[in-house]
Design goal:
This protein is mainly β and 139 residues long. It is built from three helices and nine strands. A five-stranded antiparallel β-sheet has the order 1-2-7-6-3, with no helix packed on it. Strands 4-5 form a two-stranded antiparallel sheet. A two-stranded antiparallel sheet has the order 8-9. Pfam families: FlgT_C (PF16538). This is Flagellar assembly protein T C-terminal domain-containing protein.
Length: 139
């Protein structure tokens, strides 16, 4: 399998899909083109290569012949709930101005170290109306 397209810094397209046995949630490693060769110290025989691991990605949307995969998510801790913050002598008025996403933990995708000149984007939400005959795909 290969990277077929770089959508953005967290999403790529793989050139394999459902017909190749890929399922949503499958994990993949992106490997560099050339790893370090390992030789047996006694015989000099070639044992294999230590691959250059670039990233781990997870299948998110699987089509018959391609898959959109995303970087792993990492948990960002929140500031805590308002009752906990109250013990630090903050006033109730201040709680109303703190965005909810700062109070609660949330997850963000790790940026992949992609060649930014190869980002082509895709999958912008369409402003076109839904019509009879439009394709519907199960997630």
């Amino acid at each position: 399998m290969r990277i077929a397209k770089i959508i953005d810094t967290t999403s790529v397209v793989i050139n394999a899909g459902e017909d190749d046995g890929i399922k949503k949630g499958d994990k993949f490693q992106i490997i560099g083109k050339k790893g370090v060769e390992v030789l047996d110290p006694e015989t000099g025989d070639f044992l294999g290569t230590l691959d250059d691991l670039k990233a781990t990605i997870i299948a998110n949307t699987v089509y018959p012949h391609m898959t959109i995969a995303e970087s792993e998510k990492h948990k960002i801790p929140g500031m805590g709930n308002p009752s906990t913050l109250a013990s630090t002598a903050l006033t109730q008025g201040m709680f109303n101005s703190i965005p909810k996403e700062l109070l609660e933990p949330h997850y963000v995708h790790e940026d992949l170290n992609v060649d930014k000149t190869q980002i082509t984007g895709s999958f912008k939400k369409s402003d076109k109306p839904i019509q009879v005959g439009d394709l519907v795909v199960k997630e």
